[in-house]
Write a structure and sequence with these properties.
- This protein has 13 helices and 18 strands.
- By secondary structure, it is α/β, with parallel strands linked by helices.
- Strand 10, helix 11 (about 270-275) and strand 11 form a beta-alpha-beta unit.
- Helix 6 (about 150-160) runs parallel beside helix 10 and helix 7 (about 180-190) runs antiparallel to helix 8.
- It is globular and about 80 Å long.
- The protein starts with a strand and ends with a strand.
């Protein structure tokens, strides 16, 4: 597994005006609503569909951290509202990707969802891809699925059903089956937060027993639903998601796995499990200090390094527009990763003094300085810095490019 450290990337300075288009498409017997965000410039654009995690998520992934165990797990974020899918989508659009986000059916139809099937409840992304392919702004040869949390368990199955998915990204995904993850959360959170441990253990046992029953064979008709979902549908769910690592291997798409170091919902150990079972990629990255909601535990704000990492990898797969590739190549850092020193090379001699600073993932400036007029190259000594991910920021005129630098030992 790699801890994300110094990789070359330019995002800021490519900031573009976004176009927001209401998205509506039919899925089974319900209308799905969402937002298609387009970058500036002439398309067609490579496109990303964000496949959300469990629960009644809206297109933004809106999460109000209040009540329950929130004061214990996120004491500095209590009362804050996070919108991780919106913020991730906006960052990807700034990098030149079209992004489709959608409201889950449980959010749009909390009381009138109708007959529940596996396809209906868990695979709206299938219809989302079909709708995207009708849009002239979209490059249908560059379609990417990002699965967050539970969404990570669904995207390889979707890719196996289709021939038009170019790449897969698992973001905070679990290899452990859903019921085991849920049972662990119930007990761990109760222990950590002085909750009713006995009740949590009882509920966890009931959930595991229920899923063991549905895995053994077609459940008896008298088996009650769980969380409003019929037992037979849960059986299909387990048949698809229990073997998620094998699904990724079978899909055999370019695949990136991202784990989040401060994630209590899907801990980094899940990334290790994927790494031990998935053999079609060596791209397993751990981003330290980031929680399940794509923020830190001290500040309710999206952490840009997540999008930086995704965009860097997508560019490596040839899934970015050439225009953005050319702009990203305007500044160079080498060698990368760096050990003792890194050379920063400007695209041309600077015509004005330009400030720069090196910032760690917590936002702390660890080095800073200034390029002088006429300079094109600068040697930066980094041997005294701890291995990890840093952001190199500089200001040339009104542009504020951001690059990621990997320091290793």
């Amino acid at each position: 597994m790699k801890k994300l450290v110094f990789s070359l990337l330019l995002l800021s300075g490519l900031a573009t005006a976004q176009t927001q288009i209401p998205a509506q498409f039919n899925h089974v017997d319900r209308l799905v609503r969402g937002t298609l965000s387009l970058p500036a410039g002439v398309g067609p654009h490579p496109a990303v569909v964000i496949v959300p995690g469990s629960g009644a998520n809206d297109r933004d992934g809106t999460a109000l951290l209040a009540g329950g165990y929130a004061p214990c797990l996120y004491p500095q974020l209590v009362g804050q509202t996070l919108r991780p899918y919106r913020d991730l989508g906006n960052a990807l659009v700034e990098a030149g990707f079209a992004v489709l986000r959608y409201d889950k059916l449980e959010f749009s139809y909390p009381t009138n969802l109708g007959t529940i099937t596996f396809d209906k409840l868990w695979l709206p992304a299938n219809s989302a891809l079909n709708w995207l392919k009708t849009r002239s702004e979209i490059d249908t040869n560059r379609l990417v699925l990002i699965g967050h949390s539970e969404g990570s368990s669904l995207i390889p199955w979707l890719a196996l059903q289709r021939t038009d998915v170019s790449a897969l990204i698992s973001l905070a995904g679990a290899r452990t089956p859903f019921d085991s993850v849920l049972a662990r959360q119930l007990v761990d959170f109760a222990q950590q937060c002085n909750g009713n441990l006995s009740q949590a253990q009882t509920e966890a046992s009931q959930i595991l027993t229920y899923f063991n029953l549905v895995r053994q064979g077609p459940p008896p008709p008298t088996t009650p639903p769980l969380f409003g979902v019929p037992a037979a549908v849960w059986r299909t769910y387990t048949q698809v998601t229990d073997s998620v690592a094998q699904r990724y291997n079978a899909a055999a798409k370019p695949t990136l796995f991202i784990g989040l170091g401060a994630d209590v919902n899907v801990p980094p150990s899940e990334l290790i499990r994927f790494q031990s079972e998935v053999n079609i990629t060596n791209q397993f990255w751990l981003l330290p200090g980031i929680n399940h909601f794509l923020s830190t535990n001290s500040q309710a704000a999206f952490v840009p390094v997540i999008a930086d990492t995704l965009v860097h990898w997508l560019r490596q797969q040839g899934l970015a527009n050439v225009r953005n590739e050319q702009m990203a190549a305007a500044w160079h850092l080498f060698p990368n990763p760096a050990v003792e020193a890194v050379t920063i090379q400007a695209p041309a001699a600077l015509t004005q003094p330009t400030a720069w600073k090196l910032v760690d993932l917590q936002g702390k400036t660890v080095m800073q300085g200034q390029w002088e007029v006429g300079e094109t190259d600068m040697l930066l000594l980094v041997g005294h810095l701890a291995p990890g991910m840093y952001q190199l920021q500089h200001e040339a005129g009104h542009a504020k490019p951001l690059r990621l630098l990997k320091i290793s030992r």
